[in-house]
Structure formats: C-alpha cells, structure tokens
TrEMBL record:
It catalyses: 3'-dephospho-CoA + ATP = ADP + CoA + H(+). Catalyzes the phosphorylation of the 3'-hydroxyl group of dephosphocoenzyme A to form coenzyme A. The gene is coaE. It is found in: Cytoplasm. The lineage of its organism: Bacteria, Pseudomonadati, Pseudomonadota, Betaproteobacteria, Burkholderiales. Its main location: cytoplasm. ATP binds at G14, C15, G16, K17, S18, T19. This is Dephospho-CoA kinase. Transmembrane segments: none annotated. It comes from Massilia aurea.
Length: 201
C-alpha cells in the first residue's frame, strides 16, 4: 500500500537532487527516482527501446541496444517536435513504473525525484508537498561541467529548457539550499525528515 504522504523532489540540473535523495533514503524514506526509471527504460533491452527505434530509427540505438543519449540529446534540443515524440514514448511508461514503485513503498513516506516536476503540470496534484533543491546558477553550471564534461554554454542551454529558478521556488512548499556544503545540507534534510514524519502520521 502506498504511504499517504508523499513529496515531489525537484530542482534544476546540477542542484544536487540525487545527493538530497540519498540523505532522505538514509533516514528511511522510500525514494522513487524518475531519472533512474527513464534510464532503465532506455538501457539495453529497456522496455522503451523498441518504440524509440521504431520512431527514430536504428541510429539512435548503440550497439548494445541502449539509447544513444548524446545523439538523442542533440536532436531534442534542436527540434521541439522530436522532443514531443520522445516524451510521448517515455512519459506513459515512466508514469506506470513510478506508480508501481510507489505502490510497493515500505518507508514512512515516499519521495518522488522528478527533475521536471513543475514543467510536467500533472505532478503537483500527485504529491502532498513539493520540495525544491536550490543553489545559485553559477553553482549549477560548475557542477554539471565537472560531472558531465559539458561546456558552460551547453549547460546553460539545458537550464534554459527548464523552468526558471524563481518559478520553481514560488511553486515549492519546502526549499533546501544546496550552496553551503554537505553538513548544512544534512541538517536541512534531517529537519525536513522530522517534519515529514510528523505530517505523515
């Protein structure tokens, strides 16, 4: 049975969503990460790959059968129609897998990690609270450049496809500041965990 209390965790690229989710998981929350689900769907033998190859052609699959992410990224950032076609394949499958994972949750509450929670339009009604992970845009750029070896311009192009920092903060019920280091982050997560436990009773 799905716990009645759930949190939608979101944030721009490079804000530290995975780090925060890991901290909540260590405290006993059930984590359902839509990016992890999407990667599984587009891995070798992933459930979405036959539809993706049928829609976009075999050039978008690597030799092992996984999605060629670099090729697809280039396409969808330059072609909004292609993005919509990809989303039409992935989003229903991600939603079904996410709901199944939520149904199987055993923690006191569930945290759904959804990078595009605000953009999706439907998630706000599916969770009890929205938690935004926030940091400066310069921090975002620096982290993604280090992690993904993209240029600053490439990172900012990705950021431009996401909602603005101001809108994300305006729509959040709770905010974690991830500009001050791990210990400060840990303290904020601990406080929110205690609050969520109380709210979930």
């Amino acid at each position: 049975m799905t716990p009645a209390f759930s949190v939608g965790l979101t944030g721009g690229i490079g804000c530290g969503k995975s780090t925060v989710a890991d901290l909540f998981a260590a405290l006993g929350a059930t984590i359902v990460d839509t990016d992890v689900i999407a990667h599984a769907l587009t891995a070798p033998q992933g459930a979405a790959m036959p539809a993706i190859v049928a829609e976009f052609g075999p050039d978008f699959a690597q030799p092992d059968g996984a999605l060629d992410r670099a090729r697809m990224r280039t396409l969808v950032f330059s072609d909004a129609t292609a993005r919509a076609r990809l989303e039409a394949i992935l989003h229903p499958r991600i939603r079904a897998a996410t709901e199944a994972a939520g149904q199987a949750a055993t923690g006191a509450y569930v945290i759904y990690v959804v990078p595009l929670l605000i953009e999706s339009g439907s998630w706000r009604e599916r969770v009890t609270r929205v938690l935004a992970i926030d940091c400066s845009e310069d921090t975002q750029v620096a982290r993604v450049m280090q992690r993904s070896h993209l240029s600053a311009d490439e990172v900012r192009a990705i950021m431009a496809t996401q909602v603005t920092r101001a809108r994300r903060l305006a729509e959040a019920d709770d905010v974690v500041d991830n500009d001050a280091g791990l210990e400060a982050l840990r303290a904020q997560v601990q406080a929110l965990h205690e609050r969520y436990l109380a709210l979930s009773l």
